[in-house]
Design brief:
The complex is a heterotrimer of chains A (about 500), B (about 290) and C (about 325). Chain A is an alpha/beta fold and about 500 residues long. Chain A folds into four domains: about 90 residues, Immunoglobulins (Immunoglobulin-like, Sandwich), CATH 2.60.40; about 90 residues, Sandwich (Immunoglobulin-like); about 70 residues; about 180 residues, Rossmann fold. Helices cover about 40% and strands about 25% of the residues of chain A. Chain A has twelve helices and 20 strands. The two termini of chain A are about 55 Å apart. With about 290 residues, chain B is of the alpha/beta class. Chain B folds into two domains: about 210 residues, Rossmann fold (3-Layer(aba) Sandwich), CATH 3.40.50; about 40 residues. Chain B has eleven helices and six strands. In chain B, helix 8 links the parallel strand 4 and strand 5. Chain B is elongated, with a radius of gyration of 23 Å. The two termini of chain B are about 25 Å apart. Chain C folds into three domains: about 60 residues, no CATH class; about 100 residues, no CATH class; about 100 residues, no CATH class. Chain C contains ten helices and five strands; from the N terminus they run H-H-H-E-H-E-H-E-E-H-E-H-H-H-H. The longest helix of chain C is centred in the last third of the chain and has 44 residues. Classes of the chains: A alpha/beta (about 500), B alpha/beta (about 290), C mainly alpha (about 325). At the A-C interface, helix 1, strand 10, helix 2, helix 5 and helix 6 of A face helix 1, helix 2, strand 3, helix 7 and helix 10 of C.
């Protein structure tokens, strides 16, 4: 039988290789295309495009203060180029042609301000407008609104109808001559400089991810206007060198916290070796496991175990599989069939091993049926439909839903409730906990699922790790209490000025 | 069996029938209940309203057809809003089925813009679809380094360097906003962790109504610019952009269905208390 | 030894992944990608195992004629049909054109193809005496020319590159459409156009090339939506059964459910206006404060549980996933 299954696997595997071979032909076709593309690119480069119309105008001004810094906390393959805007980047011009019309709109007197900017768009690009108003009795113009670049009018409804004619308006256009910044890089000061990126006008920071650590690189930033005019390229470049960091300093806080938690857990595990008798509070759901399986035995019905719908890389699935071992052992002892449909193939193979071992430990290897642990489908709702059908046909008396679940959680739980099964559910998915609490008899909330393995086995090491986890929780709770008190005190900054400083310090400490 | 006993032992198929009618009738005969936008949705709308035309937005479709009724109208409303403001939209997907849903939404939005604003948007210049990439959070982190290395081709197989819109989008430094529409894992938390917090990028999250409570802490902590939860969130967004669609229509059904459930709960509690009273009377008589 | 090697592998891989998080230096920056790729390969092999398990289980059910064996036949046939259609035909949307309707073919091709053989337009694809030919004859003619006609197609949107001469003024990147020569057959394939002649051949081609998309769009998507929609009914039945004011906690649960459900729909505003309460605001308060606080507390507990469980697995204390206590 194993030989047949191995052969079937091999045939299936070869079957899947066929489309890979078929795709290679398509890939070769693409390679031909790329050669043609390169030929055409070369042909296009040889035949120069028509030059734009020559207009006498001032040269484009270069960006200022170009600085090149190493990108922090990386593998040394990136440099950050920053610069200040070219003086041509942002200018303000008062629009000359402004017209103000008084109108009545919906029984309200409004001033409609309209403008035209033909002269401005010749060499510049408009970014937006500011509408300034001088109200009657005021000496200055104040900004009342902003407008988008494609707007040509603004309706001012916030006016005194009696004095609507006394308002005067100015429209200030925010214009730019710069369309793009081009970033050039070279490995020496003389060049040749190659283009490594283009930034739109508003962005004055560029990350060059194509550098090697330990080598100096030289950068120039060229401002380009909408007609293709470029700023002076002969200016001296800025130098930068990247380094790979051996430690991400911005993750130091996480490192310390993780170290602290790990210390608590490992220390507690070591202490548990000396003092194995540690107290765990009763968890109703876990205490009811034996009762549930006993009920299945009495009614002569199977037990159903679902370890979630995710793969073995999910810790919740591992937690579920861990509990499966304990449950399977009890089922073996009571001679109750256990059904374990899985949503992932890797989970199926693991579950089969776990259940087989459980039956072996219980001294009932003959009772193990491999077909009782099977793979159903990867699809979330396909799995839910399959399990629902299984529940309605087999009518299990005990249903265990322990692992990661999503939307199908209520479907499974309600169907189990319908057939009258005793249901023990547990998940660390907060959005699904309310459904399990509503529809199941017992629910393991979040960390109780992870504690289940220690609870059921009573292994001193595992119970010790629970204690370490609790120390971590205690530390967090104390910190929260301190922050709560400081937060309340911060409402009186004059008397408790230190509270804000401490909150800020702690906020930065825990910032990722 | 009297009425009280019938209500206590109510066959759940009657509940199913009531829900069926509550959802089905408003779909056939819409009521047109008004939808009032709430603050979590308005903040996202205002953020996009303040973005200048020509900005880049990455929209990630992280759901499959099972969540389509809730999430598709939400994504569509957002893309319509973005395109209507002249903002460049690039979609991608972390779930395999998401890429096709993104394509549908883009095509529908382009048609909507053509019908309402008369503008012809062009693929490659105004919008693009990068398609699906496996890898979950690894894809999100990789986008921070290079979009072209993460997605060498778009959804249609065109090399990325041949798509004009993506020449301006190298990595997160060129992206002005990230929108993620997600039904589970990978989804909003991953985008918040690996893109929003790590690269300091604004993120708008769209999710199913069931996941919204879990994601509210992110919005409360300002790690999300906006959280659009469920069909109601989608309907609110459609109201804000003045383009009522399937979500607004669905709200009638949702409203009546909620009302039906509440009435059922009330009836259930009344029967519970009446049954308790009856048991007390029985005990007194037995004494 | 049977368990020591997997535990050692787990330990090494676990520590490397933790270290990678804090050390950006090579080679740690690439470990993520390597391990992800390796995992994808393992998962791909595991799919084969899963399919084999499924086929094995259901084929035994059929051969021993166990209860409901007919559904196993449906499962195996569906699995094979979808796999064949998807693997051989691809998953893209296809357009099926009847060759006996050459006008449709030339119209569709004209949207994508500029010239044929560099000289003729698509409309001139047919010979001069085409008007005397029947539609079937025209279709047959096009089919016979599939490999011989070369067409020029618009392929990619290309950006012009910087001129190599540094003195030349830079032009703002211009778009132009790259062009290439293909045979008509290749052009049709690129456009995902499948020609057919109707009848059984059409059915076979439709299954092979369009079957996957059809099944996905009209069967799979509908089934997914159906299963998801069950939630609406189950929420109602669960609410009717469970939301009873038995205890103080149950009463609080009931009140929270009431306010959140009513506040989430328009009736909340209407009812609130009637009774003088801002119900949507109460809903928002419940979501923003008690719910958020509870969620955060659960998430902190979960995070600690995850760290503890992960450490136990990495250190080899937790061995039950290997089938061992």
């Amino acid at each position: 039988m194993d030989m047949r299954r191995s052969l079937l696997c091999l045939v299936l595997f070869l079957f899947l290789l066929v489309p890979l071979w078929a795709q290679e032909e398509a890939v070769q076709g693409d390679e031909q295309t790329q050669e043609q593309v390169q030929e055409e690119t070369q042909a296009e480069a040889d035949s120069p495009p028509a030059p734009p119309a020559m207009v006498a105008k001032k040269p484009v001004l270069s960006p200022l203060k170009i600085a090149v810094n190493d990108s922090p906390d990386d593998n040394g393959k990136a440099l950050i180029v920053e610069w200040d805007h070219s003086p041509d980047a942002i200018k303000h011009r008062t629009v000359k042609t402004v017209d103000v019309q008084q109108e009545v709109v919906n029984s309200q007197t409004v001033n409609t301000v309209s403008w035209t900017t033909d002269s401005l768009t010749k060499n510049f690009r408009i970014l937006g407008y500011e509408i300034m108003r001088q109200a009657p009795g005021e000496g200055e113009y104040n900004k009342i609104a902003t407008a988008f670049a494609d707007q040509t009018s603004y309706v001012d409804a916030d006016i005194d109808p009696g004095e609507s004619a006394a308002y005067s308006y100015k429209v200030v256009a925010h214009i730019t001559r710069i369309a793009l910044y081009e970033i050039l890089r070279s490995e020496n000061t003389q060049g040749p400089f190659i283009s490594v990126g283009m930034n739109p006008m508003k962005k004055t920071r560029f990350t060059d991810s194509g550098v090697e650590p330990g080598h100096p690189f030289y950068y120039k930033v060229i401002a380009i206007d909408k007609d293709g005019e470029r700023s002076d390229e002969s200016l001296a470049p800025a130098k930068g060198m990247s380094h790979a960091q051996w430690f991400s300093m911005n993750k130091l806080n996480i490192f310390i916290i993780l170290g602290l938690l790990s210390f608590f857990i490992i220390y507690s595990i070591e202490r548990a070796k000396k003092d194995p008798d540690l107290y765990i509070r009763p968890i109703a759901g876990l205490a009811a496991v034996e009762e549930a399986i006993g009920r299945s035995t009495e009614m002569g019905k199977p037990t159903l175990f679902i370890s979630g719908i995710m793969d073995m890389d999910d810790v919740q699935t591992i937690a579920g599989i861990t509990i499966l071992g304990q449950v399977a052992k009890m089922c073996a002892e009571y001679d109750t069939p256990i059904l374990v449909p899985t949503c992932r193939s890797v989970v199926m193979t693991t579950a089969q091993e776990v259940v087989r071992e459980a039956y072996l430990k219980a001294g009932r290897p003959d009772a193990f049926k491999q077909d009782n642990v099977w793979y159903m489908t990867d699809d979330q709702f396909g799995f839910a439909a399959g399990v629902d059908g299984l529940i309605l046909r087999e009518r299990p008396s005990a249903v265990f839903l322990l692992g990661r679940f999503y939307a199908e959680s209520l479907i499974l739980a309600e169907t189990g409730n319908y057939v009258g099964a005793i249901q023990i559910a547990g998940t660390a998915e907060p959005s699904q906990l309310p459904f399990f609490v509503t529809a199941c008899d017992y629910t393991l909330l979040g960390e109780e699922l992870f504690a289940a393995s220690a609870y059921l086995s009573r292994d001193p090491y595992e119970v010790g790790s629970l204690k370490g986890q609790d120390w971590g929780k205690l530390t967090i709770m104390l910190l929260l209490c301190v922050l709560l008190v400081l937060g309340i005190l911060s409402f009186w900054p004059d008397s408790f000025a230190f509270s804000l400083d401490v909150i800020r310090f702690l906020g930065n400490l825990f910032k990722i | 069996m009297n009425l009280l006993d019938r209500l206590i032992k109510l066959d759940r198929r009657i509940i199913f029938l009531l829900i069926f009618l509550a959802v089905g009738i408003p779909l056939i005969a819409p009521i047109g209940l008004p939808v009032e936008p709430s603050q979590p949705i308005e903040s996202g709308y205002d953020f996009i309203e303040e973005m200048p035309p020509g900005s880049f937005v990455l929209v990630s479709y992280d759901y499959d057809p099972s969540a389509r009724p809730e999430l598709y109208p939400m994504g569509l409303a957002i893309i319509k809003h973005l395109m209507g403001r002249g903002i460049k939209v690039v979609t991608m997907a972390l779930w395999p089925a998401g890429a096709k849903l993104a394509e549908e939404a883009l095509n529908e939005s382009v048609q909507y813009i053509k019908d309402t604003q008369g503008r012809e948007l062009e693929y490659g210049r105004d919008y693009a679809n990068l398609g699906f990439m496996a890898g979950n959070q690894i894809v999100i982190v990789s986008l921070g380094k290079s979009v072209s290395k993460t997605f060498p081709n778009d959804f249609y197989g065109t090399p990325i360097e041949n798509i004009n819109i993506l020449n301006g989008m190298k990595n997160y430094s060129n992206i002005d906003l990230i929108v993620t529409i997600s039904a589970g894992d990978p989804g909003v938390p991953y985008w918040v962790m690996y893109a929003g917090d790590a690269y300091d990028k604004p993120v708008i999250g769209g999710c199913t109504a069931v996941s919204a409570p879990q994601l509210y802490p992110y919005f409360a902590n300002k790690q999300l610019v906006s959280l659009i939860g469920g069909l109601k969130g989608a309907a609110e967004y459609e109201t804000l952009i003045k383009a009522p669609g399937k979500a607004s229509k669905g709200m009638d059904s949702q409203s009546i269905a909620h009302l039906t459930i509440i009435l059922l709960i009330i009836v259930g509690n009344i029967t519970f208390f009446l049954d308790k009273q009856r048991l007390k009377r029985l005990k007194r008589r037995m004494k | 030894m049977k368990y020591r090697v997997p535990i050692l592998i787990t330990m090494i891989a676990g520590f490397i992944m933790i270290i990678r998080e804090f050390i950006p230096h090579e080679p740690f920056d690439r470990i993520d990608n390597w391990l992800q790729d390796w995992y994808m390969v393992v998962a791909a092999f595991a799919i084969v195992l899963g399919i084999e398990s499924l086929l094995h289980l259901h084929s035994r059910k059929i051969s021993f004629k166990r209860k409901d064996w007919q559904y196993s036949v449906v499962l195996i046939v569906s699995l094979l049909l979808m796999s064949i259609a998807g693997i051989f035909g691809g998953i893209e949307d296809k357009t099926f054109l009847d060759m006996d309707n050459p006008t449709q073919i030339t119209e569709l091709l004209a949207t994508e193809i500029d010239t044929i053989d560099g000289k003729r337009t698509v409309a001139q694809m047919l010979p001069a005496d085409a008007s005397a030919m029947s539609e079937q004859e025209q279709g047959a003619y096009i089919y016979s020319q599939l490999k011989t006609i070369t067409v020029e197609v618009e392929d990619k949107i290309k950006v012009s590159t910087r001129h190599p001469d540094p003195k030349r003024k830079y032009t703002i990147p211009a778009l132009y459409l790259d062009r290439k020569q293909l045979s008509l057959k290749q052009a049709l394939k690129r456009q995902q156009i499948i020609l057919h002649r109707g009848g059984l051949g059409y059915l076979l081609k439709f299954y092979l090339f369009g079957g996957f998309q059809f099944s996905y769009q009209y069967i799979y998507t509908s089934l997914m939506g159906t299963m998801f929609s069950l939630l609406a009914f189950f929420v109602a039945s669960a609410a009717y059964r469970a939301f009873k004011a038995r205890t103080l906690e149950a009463t609080l649960l009931l009140l929270a459910a009431f306010f959140v459900m009513i506040g989430r729909v328009t009736f909340g505003t209407i009812l609130g206006n009637v009774i003088g309460l801002d119900i949507p605001q109460i809903t928002d308060w419940i979501m923003n404060y008690p719910v958020t606080a509870g969620q955060k507390a659960i998430m902190i507990g979960i995070a600690l549980g995850l760290i503890s469980t992960s450490l136990r697995i990495i250190l080899g204390i937790e061995k039950s996933y290997l089938g061992r206590e």
